[in-house]
Amino acid sequence: MNSYCFLCGGKPSVLSEKVAAILKGKVMPMRIVFFANGEKQIRLPVSVSSLNVFLFPAEGESAIWDTLQMIDAVKRSGPLSITVVWPCYPYARQEQAPEGGSIPPQLLSRLLATAGADRLCTIDLHAPGQLKHFALPTKNLSLLPLFMNTMQTMAEKRAEEPVLFAADGSAKARVQWLAEQLNWQFGFAEKRRLPDGTLRLVSFNGEVQNGSVFLIDDRIDSGGTFELVIRRLKKAGVRTIIGWVTHGVCDPNVLDRLQQAGLDRLIETDTRNVTKKDGFVTILSASSCLAEAIRGYREEKFLKPMRRSWIK
């Protein structure tokens, strides 16, 4: 008997549907009841008693509160376990607190744990070191093996060994791992954000002249860092630049800027609803990686009965 239950907030994402299909299941959206004052209530679409529930949050600012309601509704219904599958974890870049500021990724982990989640599953978390401060067990999956296989195939077709290049210091460890596995050369850039908010490259390392570069980072939001490094690579004489990111571009204007800066192609994944652009953007799927991790929870006997002592 399949003990998996897949629930989502809002319309199921393409990624969640692919994961469920691999595991012979189906993603069901939560029922949402709206009240006259604008409030909404989240309700279960099916019974989850004695099931291992995997929740896929929707995207957008309201997703956090909706996810907390989803967890609470599930917990009150007697599941075996609750796993929040959040491929692109919100606020992940804010891993350090500025003066007078908060650390939202850690705060969110405490909220998820308090609501009743047993664990969290995410992908290529920005600054993985922050996991030690999370309030619930978290599995941070890496898509580097997926990228590595695709890179090898592409390099063979092009009959050329590109230079791997980290767009920022935070991506340096990922690029070093790939370079060791592929036995390719690598380089990296490091930036500084000035008081007026502008970016400045303070370090640029690697032999990149007259060749091809695979430019790598974990995510692109505004595209400022990527654009800055692309222009610097072009100035250094790089012929072809292909970008590789896990959490891709959502704003079509960002895609246009990157292309104008000199990016030849962008390869990203379906961890969030990215903007598609034929001939420029290629989307790889994280579904197999996520499905394997969900299977692994059962094989590792990580699933355990929930504590429900406070429920009335």
Structure description:
By secondary structure, the chain is of the alpha/beta class. Helices cover 30% and strands 25% of the residues. Helix 1 packs across helix 8, helix 2 runs parallel beside helix 3 and helix 4 packs across helix 5 (172-182). The chain starts with a strand and ends in a 13-residue tail after the last helix.
Features of the shown structure:
6-stranded parallel beta sheet; Rossmann fold; alpha/beta; 312 residues; 30% helix; 15 strands
Describe the biggest sheet? 7 strands, mixed
Tally of alpha and pi helices: 8
CATH class of the largest domain: Alpha Beta
Tell me the strand percentage band.
25-35%
Q: Any guess at the CATH architecture of the largest domain?
A: 3-Layer(aba) Sandwich
C-alpha termini separation: 30 Å
Q: Which descriptor suits the 3D outline? A: globular
Walk me through the topology:
Layout: E1 4-8, H1 14-22, E2 27-29, E3 31-34, E4 40-43, E5 52-56, H2 63-75, E6 81-85, H3 104-115, E7 119-123, E8 138-141, H4 144-158, E9 163-166, H5 172-182, E10 186-193, E11 199-205, E12 212-219, H6 224-235, E13 240-247, H7 252-261, E14 265-269, E15 281-284, H8 287-299
Helix pairs in contact: 1-8, 2-3, 4-5
